[in-house]
Amino acid sequence: MSFERDLLAILPRLRRFAASLSRDRADGDDLCQAALERGLKARDQWQPGTRLDSWMYRIMRNLWIDEARARQRAAKTFAPEEAGLTVGHAGDRDVEAHMMLSDVDRAMQALPEEQREAIALVLVEGLSYKEAAAVLDIPMGTLTSRLVRGRGALLELMGEAA
Amino acid sequence: MTDIDEAMLIALVDGELDEVNRRRVERAAAGDPALAERLAQHRRLRERLAGHYAPLAQEPVPERLRSLLEENETVVPMTRPARRWGGWAMGGAIAASLVLSLGVGRFSGGEAGPVGMKDGVMVAQGPLATALDSQLASAQDGAAIRIGLTFQRKGGGWCRSFDGAMAGVACREDAGWQVQQMLPGAGQETAYRQASSADARVMATVDALIAGVPADAAGEKKAAANGWQ
């Protein structure tokens, strides 16, 4: 069993995680590709016997945070915490791209990164709290409070309050 | 007012509560319609998010990503890895469409998904209900939904675990199959799959509920023939 084949086996889930972090699927696949490249390069750092999927989730998430920061600097549009309602302000192209998205995509996009990644790992990827906290390198209490705040925001954004 | 906070409600939905706390929250929700509705909202949210992204893990991986991994191998595998379960490959497409209909069903407020809400609890419907009613673990080649264990719960009544696009446990109640737990399935099944998080957590739920040992093939057949009474 090779490292590459192990990666290939979890690739569908890695793509799913990338898509739930990113603004759309094309961005998600770009992120996924960058994470695979980094994972292959850093393969010596993976400890056999530990979970490869958690290791890759972590690589992907770190790449995403780096890229999101770079993009923020470039666009000089700082999104405040309650960014959900101001997403259209980043420019016409963003507005257009946004209209193609479903309610779920849009609501996920509106979440602060730290809440979105917690939601993605637990609700989309099905990780336990313990596994998700380990991937994000945060205490369990921090994870659960992000899950509570993120879900509250999603319910409001998706009009599930009724 | 009850002392059940939001964090406890979502921990229940996420399958993170132990048996004692799970019962505590369920009891509180049974006597508090507002709490029950909030709980139902959280269940719907989890279902909708999981259903929204699930089809992505079922579809073929784009060539540019696949080739990245195959280039690096000394021997390029020309065939797909063997499936752990025969028949799963065929079920995949059906499972994907099942999840898709789950998402769409929720989205439009329709009842197309495998789970409906009845008095604030999740009840299996459609193909999931059919599988739980009549599918035997010994005869399910090619099925989109696989039945795992069939067992009696503490306090009486039949429960069955299932796996597919979604994985979980459902128990037979008067109203039908009440879904105790529902998690995203593992996505594509391959021989090299890591143990999925859902597997371990479904087993934990089975452990928490089960009285005695799971039914064998004969016991399962008999229970189905008796209408799970």
Total number of beta strands of chain A: 0
* Radius of gyration from the alpha-carbon trace of chain A, in angstroms: 16 Å
Oligomer designation: heterodimer
Number of helices of chain B: 8
Q: What order do the SSEs of chain A take from the amino end to the carboxyl end, as H and E? A: HHHHHHHH
Largest sheet of chain B: 4 strands, antiparallel
Overall 3D geometry of chain B?
Answer: globular
β-strand percent of chain B reads 15-25%
Uncertain ranges of chain B: 74-111, 188-195
Distance between the termini of chain B: 36 Å
Helix/strand/pairing category of chain B: alpha+beta
Share in β-strands of chain A: under 5%
Mean pLDDT of chain B: 76
Q: Give me the number of helical elements of chain A.
A: 8
Secondary-structure element sequence of chain B? HHHHHEEHEEEEHH
Q: Fraction of residues of chain A in helices?
A: over 70%
**Overall 3D form of chain A:** globular
Task: Kindly state the number of beta strands of chain B.
Answer: 6
Helix content class of chain B: 40-55%
Identify low-pLDDT runs of chain A: 81-98
What would the average pLDDT of chain A be, to the nearest integer?
84
